Amino acid sequence: MSNTEDTTLANFKIDEKLILVNESADSPEEIIRKLGTLLFDNGFVKDSYTQAVLDREKVYPTGLQARMAGVAIPHTDTDHVLKPAIAIATLAKPITFQMMATPEEKVQVEIVIMLAVHDAKLVIPVLRKVIFILENDDALVAMKNATTKTEVKTAMLKHIESMNKKVK
Amino acid sequence: MYKVKIVVVCGSGVAMAMHAAYKLKEKLEAEKLSVHIDGSGNNELPGRIANYDIVVSNVQVTVETNKPVFNAIPLITGVGEDELVEKIIVKVKEIQAEKSA
């Protein structure tokens, strides 16, 4: 039971209820809607959140090519968020996202990490740890290979723990 | 020594810009360079850009500027980071040389 309980990191929830494994989706919009629904149904975000993420993704896309995986980190303004959380999806087949900073370029995304941030200043150390996963080859591989929600969550928590000395 | 002012830009100027800004600050301070680094949202940039010497951005910079603009993504993914930091170091030194000339 203990390893399936919610984990609080500076009030940031990484919860198995917010994880999808080997999920099928055909477009960024479809996977953003699925993760947005999980965040909304579990009371982390307002009903305006998903549309706000979709709108922002059009203007400021969030696809990134890390060494070991294509990763997208959709997010939006704090107004749409009630409680901070991270929703994660690993994809059965990669989805084409536009790249952050150079939207004319595309990236094949295998992992989507959707951030719900209610107060950026308060959670920035945790957020920074989460974003550092892009540089953690072992963590990205573990996440891509995960077959259960627990494995995805464990990969993220193990990564965050490894960052505790690096990021204060 | 002239303190070179760098602004790191993202969509809203919080999470992604701050992450890249912290990383860049560590790298430049390790080189003992005199710099000041802030984060900014893309929307605020037109009003703030005059105060900075260098722009490093996670988003397409929409304001017209003749200041040097660098793509911040290598600081976020770690891919090509050393090369980017090296380019910024060269630019910082160039600006410091100009200002003290």
Keyphrases for this structure?
heterodimer; A: 168 residues; alpha/beta; Mannitol-specific EII, Chain A; six-stranded mixed sheet; 5 helices; 6 strands; 27% strand; B: 101 residues; Rossmann fold; four-stranded parallel sheet; 4 helices; PTS_EIIA_type-2_dom (chain A); PTrfase/Anion_transptr (chain A)
Task: Sum this structure up briefly.
The complex is a heterodimer of chains A (about 170) and B (about 100). Chain A is of the alpha/beta class and about 170 residues long.
Structural summary, described in words:
The complex is a heterodimer of chains A (168) and B (101). With 168 residues, chain A is α/β, with parallel strands linked by helices. Chain A has a single domain, classed as Mannitol-specific EII, Chain A (3-Layer(aba) Sandwich), CATH 3.40.930.10. Chain A has helices at 28-41, 49-59, 120-131, 137-145, 149-163; strands spanning 7-9, 12-23, 63-65, 70-72, 85-98, 106-116. In chain A, β1 (7-9) and β2 form a beta hairpin. In chain A, α1 packs antiparallel against α2 and α4 runs antiparallel to α5. The longest helix of chain A is centred in the C-terminal third of the chain and has 15 residues, at 149-163. The radius of gyration of chain A is 14 Å and the shape is globular. Chain A starts with 6 loop residues before the first strand and ends in a 5-residue tail after the last helix. Chain B has one domain (4-100): Response regulator (Rossmann fold). In chain B, α1 (15-30) links the parallel β1 and β2. Chain B is α/β, with parallel strands linked by helices and 101 residues long. Chain B has a four-stranded parallel beta sheet, covered by helices on one side. Chain B is 45% helix and 21% strand. The interface between A and B is medium-sized, with 24 and 21 residues. Chain B: One of its GO terms (biological process) is phosphoenolpyruvate-dependent sugar phosphotransferase system. Chain B: Residues 4-96 form the PTS EIIB type-2 domain. Chain B: It holds the Pfam family PTS_IIB. Chain B: It comes from Pelolinea submarina.
